[in-house]
Write a structure and sequence with these properties.
Layout lengths: L12 E3 L2 E3 L5 E5 L6 H13 L4 E3 L17 H13 L3 E5 L6 H4 L5 E4 L7 H8 L5 E4 L6 H13 L5 E5 L17 H8 L4 E4 H5 L5 H10 L4 E5 L17 H13 L5
Helix pairs in contact: 1-2, 4-5, 8-9
The chain binds phosphoenolpyruvate and manganese (II) ion (MN).
Keywords: Transferase
Organism: Collibacillus ludicampi
Protein name: Bifunctional 3-deoxy-7-phosphoheptulonate synthase/chorismate mutase
């Protein structure tokens, strides 16, 4: 179902007045985790000034260590919703449990399935049973084929609104957090009719190479990029090292607009 052979035209996901796929690239931005109302308000306000409509923020955080901040849960979803409504933005957040998919419908406009859950088949089935766009991230060690099969799980249950996201894969290279598989983008676009995004934050784990990496993603045909932005990255409760502040985000946007990579 996700194959180009079954459908030649690009799938376009409509979210308010934003369209993901089939033309103009989009930018998803926001903090790694929803932490406080004030944090979300500051970041959303700054992003809105940059013309950003797609707001991300994690409420359920799949952390490597059980002692690390696990996210605010439903309270985080509430804060994200309130903030998105205040600024007329679209709310995107990760859900990690099949049982929470229904709950998420009241709070988010796009349900994210994270890298660690790309092959949580019960979660994929639950995501396939709702009428809400799904942003499906590639697993840490998943092949392109496995990512497409994961999307197939969702679509075979009836939900056709899927956005694929390349977020880097595990390799021996240590200069970046993961290795951005840039060729996955044109391959996914060729094999599938679904929109494809690139997460430049989790793939690189750095903030100093985001502009060239974003340009590369858009140059190979990505329908959008995702980037983590925090009002004060040094005190962020998760992914402090890779999140950029609002000024750095403004510079990134300027670089992409001036070079014609964003309209
Ligand atoms: C995220 O985007 O919040 C996240 C945890 O990313 P990933 O699932 O790609 O690691
Ligand atoms: Mn993160």
């Amino acid at each position: 179902l996700v194959s180009r052979k079954r459908r030649a035209e690009d799938t376009v996901i409509e979210l308010g007045n934003v369209r993901i796929g089939g033309g103009q690239p989009v930018v998803v931005a926001g903090p790694c985790s929803v932490e406080t109302r004030a944090q979300m308000d500051t970041v959303a306000k700054g992003l809105q000034q940059q013309g950003i409509v797609l707001l991300r923020g994690g409420a359920y955080k799949p952390r490597t260590s059980p002692y690390d901040f696990q996210g605010l849960g439903v309270r985080g979803l509430e804060i994200l919703r309130e903030t998105a409504d205040k600024y007329g933005m679209v709310a995107i957040s990760e859900i990690v449990t099949p049982a929470d998919i229904e709950l998420a419908l009241d709070y988010v406009d796009v349900i994210q399935i994270g890298a660690r859950n790309m092959q949580n088949f019960e979660l994929l089935k639950a995501a396939g049973s709702v009428n809400k766009p799904i942003l499906l991230k590639r697993g840490l060690s998943a092949t392109i084929e496995e990512l497409l099969f994961a999307a197939e799980y969702i679509m075979s249950r009836g939900n056709e609104q899927i956005i694929l996201c390349e977020r880097g894969i595990r390799t021996y290279e240590k200069a970046t957090r993961n290795t951005l598989d840039i060729s996955a983008v044109p391959i996914l676009k060729q094999e599938s009719h679904l929109p494809v995004m690139v997460d430049i934050s989790h793939s690189t784990g750095r903030k100093d190479i985001l502009l060239p990496v974003a340009k590369a993603a858009l140059a190979v045909g990505a329908d959008g990029i995702m980037v983590e932005v925090h009002p004060e990255p040094s005190v962020a409760l998760s992914d402090a090292k890779q999140q950029i502040d609002l000024q750095q985000f403004a510079d990134l946007m300027k670089g992409l607009l001036e070079s014609g990579f964003l309209p």
